Amino acid sequence: MFFLLTLSSAIGLAFGNILESIGLRAANSVKSLAVNKFWLGGLFLSVVATLLYYGAMAMYNISLVQPFMALNPALTAILGWKILGEKMSRKIAFAVGLIFCGILIDGTLAGEASGEIRPERMLWIYAGATLALLAVFCLIFRKSEITDSLCAGAGFGLSAVFYKSISLNGLFPPPIDLRIFAFAVLYIIAFLCSQIGLRRGRALFVVPLSAAIGLIVPALGGFVVFGEPFPLQKIIVIALVFAGSILFVKD
Fold it and tell me: What is the model's pTM?
């Protein structure tokens, strides 16, 4: 079940990214975008893939699930090359190799022990520290393509951490819970940043960079917030997948 959920999610997100990018480039207004078949199809795939991703997170450690999401930029880069005519290089092939090595190692950890429930304040402290660091990086790197990617990656990553925290309370969390509000706000902002980034930037830049940030934030959150196991083997996995994702970023 672990491999079915994670692989299906990563593949669905990759195809969704390409279809959304095609639709965004063809649309010249919000109205035309709302009826664009490519964008709507990509959005549908992304929604389904995201639901599968959240299902995997609810059942398994977030630091175990997240590396598999690096298949998203890998497949997006390949599809961007084949469908959108974006450049493919030896660096991309090397990046694919790193990501697949990381995922193969990560797959051997599928049966690891679950994390532990820690005080909720750890969640808010981690979220605050991450957003503060994001603000610093956005001030340093003021290029829109970079800031869009950083905001999307951090937003999706933090929303995943909040979702994992909510899922620990079962299918029916308390109706009044600030974590649910934070999750929704972070996800919406991240989605908007990703759409803006794809509109005014390059898919082969925005998707890999946001995915790399979106990998690190939940993976570290799994250790800090949820006390998930973090052996040397997992550190190697995250290092390989992160390096591979970064290599996808187009100069």
Answer: 0.79
Using the Cα atoms of residue 44, residue 241, residue 212 and residue 61 in order, give the sign of their dihedral.
Answer: positive
Exposure letters 47-70 (e unless 16+ CB within 10 A, then b): eebbebbbbbbbebbbbbbbbbbb
Instruction: Kindly state the tokens that stand for 11.
Output: 């593949």
Closest CA to 112 of 148, 60, 157: 60
CA distance 200 to 48: 25
At position 247, the amino acid (one-letter code) is L
Pick from 162, 145, 163: nearest CA to 210: 145
Give the pLDDT confidence of 80-102 residue by residue, as tens digits.
Answer: 777 767 666 788 778 878 888 88
Q: Which domain holds residue 229?
A: 2-247
Tokens, residue 31: 């109205």
Instruction: Give whole-number Cα distances, 17 to 4, 74, 108, in Å.
Output: 20, 12, 28
DSSP 11-29: HHHHHHHHHHHHHHHH-SS
Contact between residue 204 and residue 80 where contact means Cβ atoms under 8 Å apart: yes
Query: H or E stretch including 198?
Result: helix 178-200
Task: Say which residue the tokens 């919406």 belong to.
Answer: 188
Q: Give the C-alpha distances (Å, rounded to integers) separating 14 from 8, 56, 156, 198.
A: 10, 17, 15, 13
Task: Return the C-alpha torsion angle 239, 62, 152, 213, nearest 10.
Answer: -10
Number of domains the chain is built from: 1
